[in-house]
Design goal:
Low-confidence stretches: 1-39
Number of strands: 4
Radius of gyration: 21 Å
Structural class: mainly alpha
Mean pLDDT: 88
Number of domains: 2
Order of helices and strands: HHHHHEEHHEEHHHHH
Strand order of the largest sheet: 1-2
Helix content: 55-70%
Distance between the termini: 7 Å
Shape: flat
């Protein structure tokens, strides 16, 4: 099976810790007084704050006019919205005063500078959010903004698609090469994306749903560097993951997730649930 490279790197890139938080300019230091005084004007002036709102207004208009299908409009919206996020992050990381803004999550003296508080408010007032990873802030999608004013304009499948997308934004799966959600939640995500995939085979949501189904499946089967799927000591596959997979098989035997889990569990059983050469080959064939 080909490797599933999620188009969320274009549409919803921040899902995973796997999000790449760009390193600020080399040589950046904690800000001095002159930098702090300049930070607010610099931070505010380089962004076109109207972009998210204008994009959302355009999307609402298109949904009302119904000249295109909902899936086309929503995918276009998410794609353009993510482009704004990427653009704004590129600007922010290149600011001379990025460290002043970064006091939202870290500073040597523990103080959050006023310019950083003002920047946070500006970001949130204009349809975006501030998130952080490894002590660094970045600009992220705002799920309240994504969902606002469109529920009554969408069909149930589109609402389900947006709900799954927003769940992954609000509860990021990984950070610092470690799984940040429970095995149960991860297994449920696989189940939910699989169920949606069966509903959207003819829609533009299909590529996203398939990609996220297999990306989450890959995460479950192979883990992260700091939270491996196979226990460091026993060398066996994570028991919580196994139990939750079996629960899906029992409750939803005909689901796409259950069928995937059954094949993997049979492979594990034949190898005493250890990551043997045969298991490694199975994973390589599925995800590469």
């Amino acid at each position: 099976m080909k490797k599933y490279l999620t188009i969320f790197t274009i549409i919803l890139a921040l899902f995973v810790s796997c999000k790449n938080v760009k390193t600020p300019k080399a040589g950046a230091q904690n800000p001095g007084k002159s930098e702090i005084s300049e930070a607010k004007s610099e931070a505010f002036n380089y962004f076109d704050w109207s972009k998210p709102t204008l994009l959302k207004e355009k999307t609402i208009f298109q949904l009302k006019e119904k000249n295109e299908s909902n899936d086309t409009i929503i995918i276009d919206f998410l794609t353009e919205y993510q482009k704004i996020v990427v653009e704004f992050n590129d600007i922010m990381y290149d600011l001379n005063n990025y460290d002043s803004l970064n006091t939202l999550v870290y500073s040597d003296d523990g103080n959050v500078y006023q310019c950083a508080k003002d920047f946070l408010k500006k970001v949130e007032d204009n349809g975006l959010s501030i998130a952080y990873s490894e002590g660094m802030i970045y600009i992220s999608q705002n799920t309240a903004f994504i969902k606002s004013q469109i529920k009554d304009l969408l069909d149930p499948v589109s609402i389900e698609f947006i709900s799954l997308c927003c769940d992954e934004i609000d509860t990021v799966c990984c950070d610092d090469a470690a799984l940040m959600i429970s095995e149960k939640k991860l297994v449920n995500r696989i189940y939910n994306w699989g169920e949606l995939l069966d509903k959207v085979s003819e829609l533009k949501y299909a590529e996203v749903a398939e990609s996220e189904f297999y990306n989450n499946l890959n995460l479950l089967y192979q883990g992260q560097d700091n939270t491996p799927a196979f226990d460091w000591d026993s060398k066996k596959f994570n028991q919580n993951s196994l139990d939750n997979m079996k629960e899906i098989i029992s409750q939803h035997p005909d689901s796409r997730a259950a069928k995937e889990f059954e094949v993997f569990i049979r492979t594990l059983e034949a190898e005493n649930f250890e990551n043997t050469g045969k298991v490694s080959e199975f994973l390589k064939e599925k995800f590469n």
